[in-house]
Design goal:
By secondary structure, this protein is mainly alpha-helical. The protein is built from ten helices and two strands; from the N terminus they run αααββααααααα. It has a two-stranded antiparallel ribbon. A hairpin with a 3-residue loop joins strand 1 and strand 2. Helix 1 packs across helix 3, helix 5 packs parallel to helix 9 and helix 7 packs antiparallel against helix 8.
């Protein structure tokens, strides 16, 4: 008969699975610090030796990392998604920037559709909360803050899509964007007209999501990223023209 005795699972194994799921679902993020040992053991309802065993197992799997004098942190498991060679290629060739935007348009459009239909009321509340922060930051004229909230807004939508593969793939892509591999997002927030347009576009995305309209949500995401693509293309063209003009000016001075 194909039956086997049930083996009771060790408490440490249960703790490992719980923390792994929190990381997989994006609830624990790279860089997040775990509570102190006593506090975490109490939260989980396990002994400190069982917790230590679980933490050691998660460290062996490179999901957690200790920092001397600071505690235990979620490891940056996404940082190694792309090799240094590939990241350098992304950085050195403009083609990768536009392919990245096209990729985002497809993936985030799908995520917005899923979020509008599968996201819980709490998911949509998180998205709306981030958008309200964007509105509040708009008057401060701080490109760094607006840029950060822009990323948080888009990632909140991806989280609300409840697809863990998409979540971690897109987080890895946003890590490269944050590091300026594809383009400097802060440049998009420097001009007043552009900033106003971007806020209106994010408002349209948020409104469609709050109304649970998947088609409108996907269309709003596509409109937004097409605008980003066109703006960056125009800037790139202007930069090339300026470089040529400077060469002409330099040559004219020699005549």
């Amino acid at each position: 008969m194909p039956f086997q005795k049930i083996q009771p699972e060790k408490l440490a194994g249960t703790v490992v699975k719980q923390i792994e799921l929190l990381i997989l679902r994006g609830i624990l993020r790279p860089g997040d610090r775990l509570p102190a040992e006593r506090e975490l053991a109490e939260k989980l309802g396990v002994s400190r030796p069982s917790l230590r065993e679980a933490i050691a197992a998660l460290q062996e799997r490179n999901l957690l990392e200790p920092k001397a004098g600071a505690g235990i942190f979620v490891a940056d498991v996404m940082g190694a998604e792309f090799s240094e060679t590939l990241v350098r290629l992304f950085s050195d060739h403009e083609e990768a920037m536009f392919d990245y935007i096209s990729f985002r348009r497809d993936m985030e459009g799908m995520a917005a559709e899923r979020a509008a239909t599968l996201g819980s009321d709490t998911d949509l509340q998180v998205i709306n909360t981030v958008f309200r922060k964007m509105e509040a930051a708009h008057s401060k004229r701080n490109p760094a803050e607006e840029s950060q909230l822009d990323a948080e807004f888009h990632l909140a939508i991806i989280e609300a899509s409840h697809n863990v593969v998409m979540l971690h793939m897109m987080r890895a892509m946003f890590t490269l964007l944050r590091e300026g591999v594809f383009y400097n997002r802060q440049i998009m927030f420097k001009q007043r007209i552009t900033r106003d347009t971007l806020l209106d576009q994010h408002r349209a995305i948020n409104d469609a999501l709050q109304q649970r309209d998947p088609a409108a949500a996907r269309a709003a995401v596509a409109d937004h990223l097409t605008y980003v693509e066109n703006s960056l293309s125009a800037q790139s063209r202007a930069d090339r023209h300026e470089a040529i003009a400077r060469q002409r000016l330099e040559q004219e001075a020699l005549r």
